[in-house]
Write a structure and sequence with these properties.
The structure is a single chain. By secondary structure, the chain is mainly alpha-helical. It has one domain: Lysozyme (Orthogonal Bundle). It is built from seven helices and two strands; from the N terminus they run ααββααααα. The protein has a two-stranded antiparallel ribbon with strand order 1-2. Strand 1 (54-59) and strand 2 form a beta hairpin. Helix 2 packs across helix 7 (219-231), helix 4 (100-117) runs parallel beside helix 6 (166-181) and helix 5 (121-132) packs across helix 7 (219-231). The longest helix has 21 residues, at 2-22. The N and C termini lie far apart (64 Å).
């Protein structure tokens, strides 16, 4: 009799555990929703089924070693998937008025510095496209500042940091991303004048940039939409600057 009771209790525990992790109801996605809504919806599905996420161990500042689950290609320190030709075409297709040699220098600088610092250049360049409107610089930051990620810019009044060249501005952006992504020291000479203001390791993936890098709660979804557009994973993923 005792064995039967124990067996019944085990069955109840197993069923309860399964219901807690797999049966959360999520509203179905509608084709009329925006690209950001689609990304948000798919992320909810993924987070509801952790079996499809990749666990990795990271050191969080002021915390012990913990296991965190993220989609691997959304980690700031992950493997890049695109080459120079793809990156250049992506930028020019969304802003055909740009000088191709200028774009080539920007892309070269990102590929070089991201490789040196261990940053995914797909993420860095996608963020640059988001922050500058595909190098249109329609906000407070001007093109001649070579500030590709809005460093130090606040609203429309404060234009933020300025850098002496394309390469220096790109390096500052990559270094700033590395500050958020982890605790490793820089491989290049420090040019990011706001590096010391970052809580190191506070945003290892793009969605953690919401509330840290940017106050916009949808910032991670906008970043993911931009990255997926770059990867051209689906014909519906085409995105223009005005779409984000």
């Amino acid at each position: 009799m005792i064995q039967v009771v124990i067996l019944c209790l085990l069955i109840v525990v197993v069923l309860a555990a399964g219901s807690n992790t797999r049966n959360t109801y999520i509203e179905p996605y509608s084709k009329t929703d925006s690209l950001i809504d689609l990304v948000n919806y798919e992320n909810q599905l993924l987070l509801n089924d952790t079996s499809v996420l990749n666990p990795y161990t990271m050191l969080v500042v002021d915390l012990p070693m913990v296991v965190v689950r993220y989609k691997e290609n959304m980690l700031i320190r992950s493997t890049s998937m695109t080459n120079k030709a793809q990156l250049t075409e992506f930028i020019l297709s969304n802003n055909p008025k740009l000088d191709k040699q200028f774009v080539s220098r920007v892309v070269d600088a990102y590929i070089t510095d991201c490789a040196l610092e261990g940053i995914n250049h797909d993420i860095a360049i996608s963020q640059m496209c988001l922050e500058t409107g595909f190098l249109r610089f329609n906000g407070a930051v001007r093109a001649e500042q070579f500030n590709f990620c809005g460093l130090g810019a606040i609203g429309k009044e404060i234009a933020g940091s300025s850098f002496e060249s394309i390469e220096t501005g790109v390096r500052a952006h990559v270094q700033h991303l590395k500050a958020y992504a982890g605790l490793d020291p820089l491989s290049t000479k420090l040019v990011d004048n706001r590096f010391g203001f970052v809580k190191r390791g506070s945003a290892p993936d793009i969605h953690s940039l919401a509330g840290t890098w940017a106050s916009d709660v949808n910032y991670g979804f906008k970043m993911e939409a931009m990255i997926r557009s770059l990867m051209n994973t689906d014909a519906e993923m085409e995105i223009l600057a005005k779409g984000v």
